[in-house]
Write a structure and sequence with these properties.
single chain, 188 residues, alpha/beta, TIM Barrel, 8-stranded parallel sheet, 8 strands, globular
């Protein structure tokens, strides 16, 4: 299993040292770890990092904000000239997949996507999402958020998430998709 790391997109020191942490894949987060009022600052830092550092030793992935609001669009705008290897995008509803991918391609060109699954519904719809997507390369499973989304007892929630995770893992292996589990990501 490859070592996957995650760093805050608003941390200059971590952006500079990204290749030194020993991860094979590094996720640069503009979504969850960056405070709302610091999003613009993080975009500028990440844009400059991709312009000045080549990150030859690691595969680079950027976790962008939802494209339903302006934050996600601004994230893509800052990356359009220096694309990472892949983008993690919050999973849209099934009826919005094609529109979302068209929007991404119009802003940054053809790029590989990983859809973030953070609700019971997005996990349930993962296979359908993959069927509709032309750019999908995998999924990012946020177990903690899926657990919070379930409205059953804690023990039952754990069992449901474990079952869904195993089903998703089997599907990803059979289709050769990447599956990143948030619990297995090292946060720097």
């Amino acid at each position: 299993m490859k070592k996957i790391g995650l760093i805050n997109g608003n941390s200059p020191k971590k952006l500079i040292n990204a290749e030194l942490y020993g991860a094979e894949i590094m996720i640069f987060d503009l979504n969850e770890t960056v405070e709302k009022e610091k999003k613009d600052e993080a975009r500028i830092l990440l844009k400059e990092a991709f312009e000045f550092f080549y990150y030859e030793k690691i595969k680079t992935i950027v976790f962008v904000n939802s494209l339903d609001g302006c934050n996600g669009l601004e994230d893509l705008e800052c990356l359009k000239h220096n694309l990472p290897s892949m983008l993690i995008v919050p999973a849209p509803s099934l009826d919005k997949v094609m529109k979302l991918e068209e929007k991404i391609i119009s802003l940054v060109g053809d790029v590989d996507l990983i859809y973030a699954l953070d609700t019971e519904k997005t996990v349930y719809d993962a296979e359908k999402l993959a069927d509709l997507s032309s750019n999908i390369k995998g999924f990012y499973l946020d177990e903690e958020k899926v657990l919070m989304d379930l409205e059953v007892g804690e023990a039952a929630s754990q069992q449901i998430v474990e079952f869904a995770k195993n089903k998703l893992l089997f599907y990803c292996k059979s289709e050769k998709y990447m599956l990143i589990n948030s619990k297995e990501v090292v946060r720097y």
